[in-house]
Amino acid sequence: MTETKTTRPNILFIMYDQLRFDYLSCAGHPHMDTPNFDRVAAMGVRFTNAYIQSPICGASRMSTYTGRYTSSHGAQWNGFPLRVGEQTMGDHLRRAGVDCWLIGKTHMKADAEGMARLGLSPDSMIGARQAECGFDVWVRDDGLWAEGPDGFYDHRRSPYNEYLKSKGYPSENAWADFANAGVDADDNIASGWMFANADKPANIAEEDSETPWLTRETIRFIDQAKDGWCAHVSYIKPHWPYIVPAPYHEMYGPNHVPQPARSMVEREDPHPVYGAYMQNKVAAAFQQDEVRQKVIPAYMGLIKQCDDQLGVLLDHLEATGRMDNTMIVLTSDHGDYLGDHWLGEKDLFHEQSVKVPLIIYDPSAAADATRGTTCDALVEAIDLAPTFVETIGGKVADHILEGRSLRPWLHGEVPDWRDYAISEYDYSATPQAAKLGVEPRDARLFMIFDGRYKMMHAEGGFRPMLFDLHTDPQEFDDLAKGDTHGAEIDRLYAMLAQWGRRMSQRVTKSEDDIKAMRGASLRKGILPFMLDGTEVPPELTEKYRGKAPAKYTPD
User: Fold this and answer.
1) I need a labelling partner for 479 at 20 to 30 A (CA). Which of 219, 262, 381, 555 fits?
2) How far is CA 12 from the centre of its chain?
3) What does the alpha-carbon distance between residue 376 and residue 373 come to, in Å, rounded to a whole number?
């Protein structure tokens, strides 16, 4: 019997931007107190080895939304359009009868040229979904409403700025002037873009800041929705600018800032790409103790605010009776170096950047045995889309979706699983590529991690990097500098080659479609390569036997 839409579970898919895997109390952080992340972990499964498919916002998100690797969908950098026709979780869920809504950020850039070529108007339903990464939009706000001499970074309207105007904040860009800025001793704007201001409170009422605003939008959506929905709630924080409103700005201080996880050995003959990143502007800033002692407490305050607002959502689900019918997923699009490995931001493949938190609460009785447990299987962000399709009772289009459903792990099963995790990084648009003299087509990095050894391959003729996370969990000692681990490097390259041979572009025909095609042409009269017709059943040659209708005689 087919399950009706109203009996299907809801999916609350929450993504935080730039949230490190280890900045949660349930993950062992010594100072962070995140009782609501812990609350979901106690109800579900916390995956301890979850990896994103690219350590940059746009590319990572496009992989999560499509369920495909970045080299499959092609949108490998911020601002690279996701090509028209690429299917996303919204398309897969909608096909199975469940609507998929966006509340917050996607970092999606539409393939306007492709849409115009096909005559798809962004004002039409199909055009709007193509332009919005397959989601129906409740509210989209990507944050970063920055403005410089050449205008705004983002040319769309800002729903959040419109909200602030409605609350009386006197600015055309209150995001920049209030939500992400403090006030200095001389009553001047203390912009969050300057790390020196990270210890100041943002000049905004806490309830009007970005995270509570998006929480209220989420509740507004939930209250009007009928059961059987997927809502992608995508917070901009704790992504920079690193500034947070009171009281969160003073909850943590320099005494809560750990020593940076870095070693001088990393600066000795570094891989050329790594060396270039250690010399960029954000790395130089985070190599200063003063920066870390101001920024990290603000980052922690932003996470604490996210946790408090998660509690608001969880309480609302319980108060409205939806907790028993709503899957909850908590994750991030990438991490944040915060000065570890002499770096800031994300970009490369150390754990601080490429590993993310992933906590899933499945309300079904089948998941009762795994509540409050952890799973250390190698999980990829692309696994979420097939997990959602299976959760609502749909059939996973595994000729399109390259991830694997996590439901077996949620239900206490041990499936046949992957041997390695993959992440990719296209740095062709960066100053580092120009500095290294690498052509755009060669400015590509690949990570393969088998649970112990992590290798980075760089196109352009560079040597690899290799770390043994069993003996060197902090990833200081690049074993590829010497010649002692050639066998491991060869083994990982063989795995990378196996992954590179995957079937990734045949997305218009499924395995079942192809099997059904086999021999079908015979039954439609295409009978080549026969000697006398006895090679096939008589019924297939029936139309080609018997008396000729007439003998042709030329005039």
Assistant:
1) 381
2) 15
3) 10
Mean pLDDT rounded to a whole number for the chain? 95
Residue 364's CB is within 10 A of a number of other CB atoms, namely 14
For residue 414, give both structure tokens: 């041990």
| pLDDT (0 to 100) of residue 6 | 47
Which of 74, 77, 52, 83 minimizes the C-alpha distance to 426? 77
SS3 call for 115: helix
Query: Three-class SS string for 9-21?
Result: CEEEEEEECCCCC
Whole-structure pTM over 0.70, yes or no? Answer: yes
* Sheet strands (E) in 112-260: 136-140, 147-148, 151-152, 181-183, 189-191, 201-202, 229-234, 244-245
pLDDT digits (tens, 9 = 90+) for 461-481: 999 999 999 999 999 999 999
CA distance linking residue 172 with residue 167, whole number of Å: 13
- 3-state SS class at 70: helix
- On whether the CB atoms of residues 84 and 115 are closer than 8 A, the answer is yes
Which phi and psi (to 5°) does residue 406 adopt? Answer: -90, 0
Query: pLDDT, tens digit, for every residue of 88-129?
Result: 999 999 999 999 999 999 999 999 999 999 999 988 999 899
> Which two structure tokens, joined as six digits, stand for 19?
């949230």
Q: What's the Cα-to-Cα distance from 400 to each of 69, 187, 503, rounded to whole Å?
A: 11, 55, 9
Rounded to 10 degrees, the C-alpha dihedral 71/73/76/80 comes to 150
Sign of the dihedral defined by the CA atoms of residues 243, 244, 246, 250, in that order = negative
**Using CA of residue 36, residue 469, residue 76, residue 266, what is the dihedral sign?**
positive
Q: Which token pair is 86?
A: 């690429």
Fill in the DSSP letter of residue 365. G
Residue entry with tokens 């704790």:
238
* pLDDT tens digits, 246-283: 999 999 999 999 999 999 999 999 999 999 999 999 99
